[in-house]
Design a protein that fits this description.
The structure is a homodimer. Chain A is of the alpha+beta class. Helices cover 38% and strands 17% of the residues of chain A. Chain A has helices at residues 64-82, 138-151, 153-157, 168-178, 180-185, 192-200, 213-219, 232-238, 242-246, 265-271, 285-292, 349-359, 366-374, 414-438, 451-455, 457-467, 479-492, 502-509, 521-542, 553-565; strands at 12-18, 22-29, 35-42, 61-62, 93-100, 105-108, 129-130, 188-191, 259-262, 278-280, 283-284, 299-304, 308-315, 328-331, 338-345, 384-386, 403-408, 445-449, 472-473. In chain A, the strands form six sheets. In chain A, strands 14-15-13-12-18-19 form a six-stranded mixed beta sheet, with helices on both faces. A five-stranded mixed beta sheet of chain A has the order 3-2-1-5-11. In chain A, strands 4-7 form a two-stranded antiparallel sheet. In chain A, helix 2 (138-151) packs across helix 4 (168-178), helix 13 packs across helix 14 (414-438) and helix 14 (414-438) crosses helix 16. The termini of chain A are far apart. At the A-B interface, helix 12, strand 17, helix 19 and helix 20 of A face helix 12, strand 17, helix 19 and helix 20 of B. Strand 17 (403-408) of chain A pairs antiparallel with strand 17 of chain B, so a sheet runs across the interface.
């Protein structure tokens, strides 16, 4: 018998994905996209990784210690997992990439150490990481929007016309106003996505951090067209103390095909990796998730998890109008040479989880409710919900909106409500898709990724029926980590066995599942009618100065219900 | 030791109360109102006494057999209970009265036998009793309203401007249209309130039934001013077959201080009562409940159960305008010489029960949810509901409205929703009270009765705070049965040891509890603000041609929430 040697020259990249509740590492073979090892670390702090305050429902923070512990645990775990695979050797890891949630900034001192590690602030939630879904800065967001509308309208044009309470400057300004001790002690604020590569490469000192254009452009009003971050006059007019923060920020931001630096000896040892491995500039999970889903012009990538991100790209050599209500249009935030366009829903899986975990209807879990909801026909329940339990990110850009369920009767069941909540998120997704298309970005293909898309056939079929488009599902179940690994393969470069660019990486490493969810024509027709009602409520409750007589909405729903049942 | 004899000359009346799920008999001493015996019989048929059809959520029927079995069981049970009391003797029962739900008509043959007892129709839901909350006739109700608006506007003026799907002619017309076999087999239709006294007195033959003015006036467009029931031309214009039904109806209806007849030998034996006891003409539970609560001009009696009735009376010698949206203004439907005014909410306890029994949030029962909801402050949850899960009876008179919950976040708890549902019913109650007052019927005293008022302090305090009025609670926990017993005492007459009239009966037999719920000024102020928002939604969703920008509603709720928490 001949001995068949393990394949030679297999090279690997590691993608690190820092989510809302856990960190994940993924070891990927760069020529095939094969995922050879993975590990997940659940953040131990707070409520599933989120520090909450029962008196302030808008507050959501994280402990940066969870990130460092998670980094070490999940890389080592993924390496052990990969070691089971033929031909894997730690020495063949050629690059790393990082994605995180955002805007998730943390205050750091002049040496780059988080204030949260300072004994003075250890117990202070304001010194922790301000998680993306923290909305405490809604008043400051309104103030920034109003000031920019008067003085710097171009700042708003690229972020949907409204600066969000989720974003960088809203959070920092709210901290300045409500926790001046923390604000004064902070030298600067660093996005989680920038902080992780900085830590890994020994570049945590604020003067050396390479800040990513993804976070800077989408959340901090950075644009090379106006010289980078917002100018000092503008920030000073909001609060003179912001000028000091502005002066700590660099003039240039980087895209994820550029390196943040090389892995330090210390971290190489901790992680069991070769020293000097290049680490890509960090980006947000949605952006690298889109990369890991094979985003290209005409493809809408929907990352469906606790919330969604709806991502598109458009070539920078074509003209592109500002799109009202879009969270951001940022050059090179997803792919070099392309505008990155980010839309999204503030809560999707979070709404389903709220219903199952907080309301706990009839003690039923997702599987039981999904099973019952699958047996219902569109329109049958007469229910219609607004999916605004965590505000509306796109196209209304308004965190001060709330969820609604309408059409309730004495017979409305938990499964009917569950289905109505799923449908509401589908209607929200359709509003976003239609907004892209209205502004000339035709959607010829939809690729879903994220846990819900892989697990829940009901949700995918409803999305197909409501959006009227086939729903593809990304082959990888962990596209942000895959996208981060692709960034690692690109910064490693072709010579090291990686890829020359994202285009080559996408061809080699991404794909979709065979199973496709196609719209059912009859369901689609019913949902078209319900969507018109959704849009009426959406505009009546969400758009200022709309003038709408809503009195026929419920009757129309009942008529649809009766028609379906007849 | 002297022997003290039991008091002499104690006389008793029996009140029979037929509710939605059970029948009750109450034995009352007529000089004091002392309730010496009671018994309840749960209807065995259907779902808690209601026959449902899963394909038709508007359908709600009852089995008339349950009424007859309930009559016998609960009178005998109440007599056994009374027999434990000193000085009670069956021979001292001097009168009986009956109340039922309504409009709850049943089809009978020419001998007065329910079609439901005919083997041909035993399994046919359309041959059973059409329970008050059956809304299958909504299309017919709209047709009757429209036809009357054109041809007989005075018919509508006394029933709030809209003929309801809950009422007599809507149900009969719907039967004619959808179940012609049942309709053709029926000689006439009899209200449950009229059928029970007819059975007890041997007057079930349609030619001998004394129909009550309460049912006829409030539900069948009967008014002595236009010669009784609607004329044949009008009914014939809706459907020529209704003319035949019209011809089975008498020219005069009776109030509850008039006798329907005397107890037959057969029923006297079955019930263990003296033959020949006078039985009062039947009336609806709400009307006799108001009597049992001591209704008088200026007193709003609120019967708070699965639904509510909000009752007032006004002297017939004073002029009284038509009141838009009021279910009915009917001479002598409550007290002789007074207009009876009936308003009400289509669902109150039913909404709380839906939440606890159908949604089953976190497995919590009413007590657990009430306990948690009591610890919440007004406005704290940011939630606002519309209490239209079973339509809106007053002031919108529209069964095609549905419930709504607005202001949901990912943190909204079952107790918060439960409280919001209670508050919604309180706002609904306030709309009704304000409508009475707008039309000159000042409310100087509110007396609540019904199970919820006696059991649930949270509900009563919220009603006080939302309505801005002290809430009294009727001393009796079974005011409809007490009112029916009072009718029995009045038809018995003073000479037999009863009462000359309802006024005398009320002085002797009714009262309120010592505990009174007073408005908390701070809560009241918060609720005034939330009520304004409720009214905006109420009008936007419930009133045709209203023009309202609703986009600030949610923000206003959140602002109130934040203010309360601050």
């Amino acid at each position: 018998m001949e001995h068949i040697p393990a394949p030679l020259n297999r090279k690997f990249s590691i993608g690190l994905d820092f989510g809302t509740s856990s960190a994940r590492a993924l070891v990927v073979e760069v020529s095939s996209g094969e995922e050879v090892g993975t590990a997940v670390y659940d953040y131990p702090s707070g409520d599933q990784g989120v520090l909450l305050d029962p008196r302030e429902p808008d507050l959501a923070r994280q402990n940066p210690r969870d990130y460092l512990d998670g980094l070490q645990e999940c890389v080592r775990g993924a390496m052990r997992d990969a070691a089971k695979s033929d031909g894997f050797s730690a020495g063949d890891v050629i690059g790393m990439g990082v994605d995180t949630t955002g805007s998730t900034p943390l205050p750091v001192d002049s040496g780059g150490t988080p204030l949260a590690f300072d004994p003075r602030f250890r117990e202070d939630v304001n010194a922790q990481v301000w998680l993306w879904k923290d909305h405490t800065g809604h008043a400051e967001a309104a103030e920034i929007t109003s000031r920019a509308r008067d003085a710097r309208p171009h700042y708003l044009a690229k972020c949907g016309g409204t600066y969000s309470s989720e974003w960088f400057w809203s959070k920092i300004l709210h901290c300045a106003r409500t926790a001046p001790d923390v604000f004064d002690a902070a030298y600067t604020w660093v996005e989680h996505a920038d902080w992780m590569p900085a830590i890994l490469t020994g570049n945590a000192n604020p003067s050396r951090i390479r800040r990513g254009v993804c976070a800077a452009g989408h959340k901090a009003m950075y644009n090379s067209a106006w010289g980078g971050y917002p100018d000092e006059d503008f920030l000073g007019s909001l609060d003179h103390r912001l000028v000091r923060v502005r002066r700590t920020l660099p003039s240039r931001a980087y895209h994820a095909a550029e390196p943040a630096g090389m892995l330090t000896e210390e971290w190489a040892e901790r992680l069991g990796l070769p020293e000097g491995v290049p680490v890509a500039v960090g980006a947000f999970d949605a952006h690298l998730g889109a990369v890991g889903s094979g985003i290209r012009p005409g493809t809408l990538v929907r990352i469906v998890g606790t919330s969604t991100c709806d991502m598109m790209v458009a070539p920078m050599d074509d003209p592109l109008a500002d799109i009202p209500g879009l969270c951001g249009i940022v050059p090179e935030s997803v792919l070099p040479g392309q505008y990155g366009l980010e839309a999204g829903q503030s809560a999707v899986g979070d709404i389903f989880n709220w219903f199952v975990r907080v309301i706990r209807p009839d003690g039923k879990d997702h599987a039981a409710l999904t099973g019952e909801a699958e047996r219902l026909r569109p329109g049958e329940s007469g229910l219609l919900a607004l999916d605004w339990h965590n505000g509306n990110r796109t196209v209304l850009v308004d965190q001060r909106l709330t969820g609604m369920i309408l059409g309730l009767t004495l017979h409305s069941t938990p499964a009917e409500i569950y289905r109505a909540l799923v449908e509401a998120t589908a209607f929200g997704a359709r509003v976003i898709m239609e907004r892209f298309e209205e502004y000339g970005l035709g959607v010829d293909r939809i690729v879903n990724c994220g846990g819900i898309s892989a697990r829940n056939r009901l949700v995918m079929q409803i999305y197909a029926d409501v959006m009227g488009r086939a729903q593809h599902i990304s082959r990888s179940s962990q596209t942000p980590a895959l996208g981060a690994a692709m960034a690692g393969a690109v910064v490693a470069g072709e010579a090291a066995g990686g890829h020359a660019d994202f285009d080559a990486a996408a061809r080699a490493m991404t794909g979709v599942q065979e199973a496709v969810f196609h719209p059912d024509p009859q369901n689609r027709q019913i949902y078209d009618g319900i969507f018109r009602l959704y849009k009426r409520l959406h505009d009546a409750f969400g758009v200022r100065d709309s003038r709408d007589d809503l009195s026929d909405v419920m009757k129309a729903l009942l008529a649809i219900r009766d028609e379906v049942r007849a």
